[in-house]
Amino acid sequence: MIVVENLTKTFGGRNLLTAVSFAVSTGEKVGIVGPNGAGKTTLLKMVAGDEPISAGKVNLSEGELGYLHQEADVLLSRSLAEEMWTALPELSSIRERISKIEEALILENGDPETLATELNDSHDRFKLLGGNGIDASIARVTDGLGFTTADLGKPCGDFSGGWRMRISLAKILLRRDEHLLLDEPTNHLDKASKQWLAQELAEYPGAVLMVTHDGDFLDRVATRILNVEQGRVRSYPGNYSAYLEGKANRQAQLDNEADRQEREIARQEQFIERFRSKATKARQVQSRIKALDRIDRVERMTNSGATKFQIKSSGRVEHRVLYAESISHDWEDSPVLLDVSLEVERGQKIVLVGHNGGGKSTFLRILAGEVESSEGSVTWAERARRGYYAQHQDESLDPSLTVLEEVRRSAQDQPDGALRGILGRFLFSADDVFKSVRMLSGGEKSRVALAKFLVQPNNVLLLDEPTNHL
User: Fold this and answer.
1) 8-state DSSP, 181
2) What mean pLDDT is reported for the chain?
3) What is the value of pTM for the model shown?
4) 92-119 burial by CB neighbour count: b if 16+ within 10 A, else e?
């Protein structure tokens, strides 16, 4: 069980979260929703102990806690199978010791009787901890998240950033800790992997607290929703659809109460104003003034700001924008594209679909000039000014800079006033533009990356998963 009591987080003299309290019982699947920058990731970090708490406390009942960050946590030189074993430190250590003892016996390094006794003890401990079934569990989890049997032998460095995030998620699921904290677990997952993960979490016996913008996923998994907004957290029973209905009902109820209260206040103020100067009514006037001062005003729910921007084309491109002919590409002798051709005309909006690992990002990178294809050619129109938004564009941000400084790097001498106007449309208003990139949530970083991308003059857009974290 996870118990959060009066949790407060202060940034730059203002409260990001104020006196937040809630509990997640064993077996509950709780989704955290809210606008970007509301403090969802910060809340998870504080529960995990990765972020200092300004006030309040977090208590966990018996059991371990598994935490999926928004950044992958893998060693690139290890194979996928080896990396999965690191999720179980004690079993991994025993497994390694068994291997060394067996090698010592073969090479006759040490006392055979002592080594044999230690080997038997190690095997007994390994079996007791369920070690004999771990390879099968690894195969089940990795298969569910879209990896093949052949992938188990590949170094983690061979996988893209999205697939490395899947490895981090697979390690968390393999551990089966009593408490799970998941930050955007469905990012980088295809439809089949999302369906498998939804079923896995629905059947998970422990407590789950997850941040995600994926309403469909929460409809399949969540038993309760926590809405983080304007520094407060409100709980709604049921899944995401039930939350939307409950929030709308609450908003209507508060609006009705506020309307009634405002009418009553107006009536009392009218009486006060009418009889303020009459001595015979002085006592009643003072009584009503005091009554108004004591009224606990009903606060209406306010809608969070929405990002508003226009994507403008810089110059008119020719009718035939792009012609890619017979594109083929291999990654270390593994073919990902074979004889792919594409013609793009002005005004077209084209989407690439297909299973993960099918070559969509590779094809886009080839078109953008980021990767040279093994075979084939790419011909762009003379006036084409292409802009490429990479799948992990936010990873290229400099954490030491402020939001304004980071966008200024791509602005081509635009004045700060114009840049602040652009950032305001991406919900970075007033002093928010002076926030350090290091302090931003995943969603806020994506908005900065998108703002940087859109201040550059383009008339052709190549976008790889631009809605991640949004």
Assistant:
1) E
2) 88
3) 0.74
4) bebeebbeebeebeeeeeeeeeebeebb
Phi and psi at residue 282, to the nearest 5°? -60, -45
- SS3 of 402, please? strand
166 contacts 182 by C-beta, under 8 angstroms: no
Q: β-pairing, 386-389 with 460-463?
A: parallel
CB-neighbour burial class of residue 217 (10 A; exposed 0-12, middle 13-18, buried 19+) = buried
Q: Which two structure tokens, joined as six digits, stand for 37?
A: 């920058």
The helix (H) or strand (E) run that includes residue 291 is helix 282-294
Cβ–Cβ < 8 Å for 222, 235: no
Over the stretch 55-76, which tens digit does the pLDDT of each residue have? Answer: 999 998 878 899 998 777 899 9
β pairing state of 29-33 and 14-24: unpaired
**Which tokens hold the place of 224?**
């309760």
Give the angle 7-47-228 at the CA atoms, nearest 5°. Answer: 60
Nearest to 354 by CA among 343, 364, 368, 366: 364
Which pLDDT does position 12 carry in this prediction?
A: 67
Tokens of 460: 């052709």
Residues in the chain: 470
Record the tokens describing residue 289, joined without a space. 């003034």
Number of Cβ within a 10 Å radius of residue 388: 18
Nearest CA-CA partner of 66 in 169, 142, 186: 169
| Mean per-residue pLDDT, 149-177 | 90
The answer to whether the beta carbons of residues 265 and 292 sit under 8 Å apart is yes
Residue 11 has pLDDT above 90, yes or no: no
pLDDT at 65: 92
Domains delineated in the chain: 250-294 (no CATH), 320-463 (3.40.50.300)
Query: In 129-239, which ranges are continuous DSSP H helix?
Result: 134-144, 161-175, 191-202, 215-221
> 415-432, pLDDT tens digit by residue?
888 888 888 888 887 778
